[in-house]
Amino acid sequence: MSINEDDWELINDDGFVYKRLKRHNQTPTFSQPPPPPDPLAQAQAQRKRKKTILLNLKNKYQKEISQWEHLSNTLTALQNKPPVTVPLVVQNQSGVGSPESSSDNGFRELADKVLAQLEAQEATINEVSRLCDTVEALCDAEEQRLKEPLFDLPIWEPSCEELMTSLQTEE
Length: 171
Description:
two-stranded antiparallel sheet; mainly alpha; single chain; 7% strand
């Protein structure tokens, strides 16, 4: 490819005159700027985005409220539940048994009654413990959700250079 005299152009840059090769127009020419977007369509799209975001947020909060209501109802049911009592079995003693066996049976019945009450209390404690675990899991999830934006900050970057570049790009 030989360079002809026609391939050069004369440039005057504030009194400094020089020749340079002509540039062939490689960038596409824009005959007209693109038409401006329709404001009505933009407004509708923005309303649609807002609506979907709000619906997602509403569903999230309704789910969380239903979980708390379930936990509250379960706890209320536990509080309203009457304590389990074992009915006393009255034995007909017609003087056939000896006094030692009747007092032994009385102690046995009392021990059975206390044992039944302890088992009922254990069941209640296990239920409350399970509810506490559920509430703790919900609180931990919320805490993680709140902490996540703090951990994503550029201040935690491993090197100073990365921190400086992230601070410069945010300006």
